[in-house]
Design goal:
about 40% strand, alpha+beta
Length: about 160
């Protein structure tokens, strides 16, 4: 009976250690993903396309979902090079993407981040929506492999 108790206690202890390790690893992964998102938006505000580039895998995809004047859903393809060029284009007003509460889900080497935002050019509101990031954990760290965003001018999330 004593042996069973020791084995049971040891099993519980090992499971607790593994759970603690997993929770800490996911916490560190979340922090790294949040850091990548922050690097992206700081790079946009600074007009620094090299900082923005560090967030993305070389073959990352970009799409936007919006509605046309008739209310029909429109899906637009973007390109990473076009986005980086837009960030690097000198301008008088900064590109300021203000984000709300970020939700991150992680499974192994895949993560998604749901990022509500309001976008401003200087002090002028442009549009709002949600960025849906997909990240892959690579040898270089967490890299954005895809961004799909929604864009609209009304019904923005209030809690930004």
């Amino acid at each position: 009976m004593k042996n069973r108790f020791i084995k049971f206690t040891a099993g519980i202890f090992i499971m607790s250690l593994l759970l603690s390790y997993t929770v800490n690893a996911q916490k560190n992964d979340r922090e790294m993903i949040l850091s990548q998102i922050e690097t992206l938006f700081d790079g946009m505000r600074a007009g620094d396309s090299s900082a923005v580039s560090k967030v993305f895998s070389s073959d990352a995809t970009m799409q936007s979902i919006s509605k046309d004047r008739e209310g029909n859903t429109r899906i637009s393809q973007g390109s990473l090079s076009g986005f980086k060029n837009a960030v690097a284009t000198p301008r008088n007003d900064i590109l300021d993407e203000r984000v709300g509460k970020i939700q991150i889900n992680i499974d192994d080497n895949l993560a998604t981040a749901w990022v509500p935002y309001s976008f401003y050019v200087g002090d002028n509101f442009s549009h709002c929506g949600v960025n849906s990031f997909q990240f892959a954990k690579t040898s270089e760290g967490w890299m954005a492999i895809s961004i799909v965003d929604t864009r609209r001018r009304t019904e923005c999330i209030e809690e930004l």
